[in-house]
Amino acid sequence: MQNKNSKTSKEDNLLIKTIAKNLTRLMNEKHIESQQLSDITGLGIATVNSLKRGVGNPTLTTLEVLANFFNTSVSELIEKKEKGVLSKVIVEPMPLISLSRIDDYINNQLFEDTFIAEIGNYSSSSLFAIKIDNDTLNPHIPIGTICIVSKEVKVKDGDITLVKINHHTPFFRRVYIESKYLAFSPIMIESNPTVYENYELLGVVIKKIRSF
After folding, report:
1. N or C: the chain end with fewer CB closer than 10 Å?
2. Closest of 160, 163, 193, 156 to residue 174, by C-alpha
3. Helices (H), 54-123
4. 3-state secondary structure labels for all residues of 10-49
5. Residues 6+ apart with CB under 8 A from 59
6. Dihedrals phi, psi of 193, to nearest 5 degrees
7. Strand 171-178 and strand 194-195: pairing?
8. What is the model's pTM?
9. Residue 210 pairs with which residues in a beta bridge?
């Protein structure tokens, strides 16, 4: 029987593997090396090499820069090409926010970039992506991880949620359903769940993706 985590990992990797194949094909057609592509587009050489290896997930801005350079569309970068036929990979763009600036998005809908990912059967309008930019959640959620959050998914026992408790900055907490109440606990240390009177559940983490 296939391991569930293995299956999820393969699904998460499909998009970036498709981008890697298409980018390599476009670079070969244009006879351009990674360093040249980096110098001309302004993308870091590490980013270009990571994309070619199929590692991490690029922002929409990065894909637009590449698409403009190759005089093509973002769609051609993210669609699977088999036997000359394009097979569409279903992805959606969503706001990308650093964890340290989450208040800017929650309070004013400000975000730094746009992120694309395969989302499955989720409403695209309910999604946003949070980039972990500090080590406060190590080792459970390392720096560089992108957490896809849905504002509409019904919470289940054990989910990782984005929650605002009292007037504090929103943070990630694991949720436990206790009768009619929700209890929350930190995800990076062992502790008993706590029931709070004043909290706002902002979303549920539906996917975690390692970025570069």
Report:
1. N
2. 160
3. 60-69, 74-78, 102-108
4. HHHHHHHHHHHHHHHHHHHHHCCCHHHHHHHHCCCHHHHH
5. 96, 113, 114, 115, 116
6. -60, 145
7. unpaired
8. 0.64
9. 145
Query: Cα dist. 172→12, 58, 134, 140 in Å?
Result: 21, 23, 13, 11
Identity of residue 183: A
pLDDT in tens, 105-130: 999 999 988 888 777 777 778 899 99
Distance in angstroms (rounded) separating the CA atoms of residues 85 and 81:
5
Closest C-alpha to 133, from 167, 163, 104, 166: 104
Q: State yes or no: cis peptide before 139, omega within 30 of 0.
A: yes
Tokens at 164, concatenated: 């605002």
CA 32 to each of CA 2, 26, 47, 50, 53: distance values in angstroms, whole numbers, following the listed order: 40, 9, 16, 16, 16
Which residues, listed in sequence order, are joined to residue 201 by a DSSP beta bridge?
163
Number of helices and strands in the chain (H, E):
6, 11
Residue 143 structure tokens: 């720096």
In this structure, which amino acid lies at residue 50?
S
Locate tokens 């993210």: which residue? 78
- Are 112 and 145 in contact by the 8 Å Cβ rule? The answer is no
- Residue in the structure block whose two tokens are 């040249």: 36
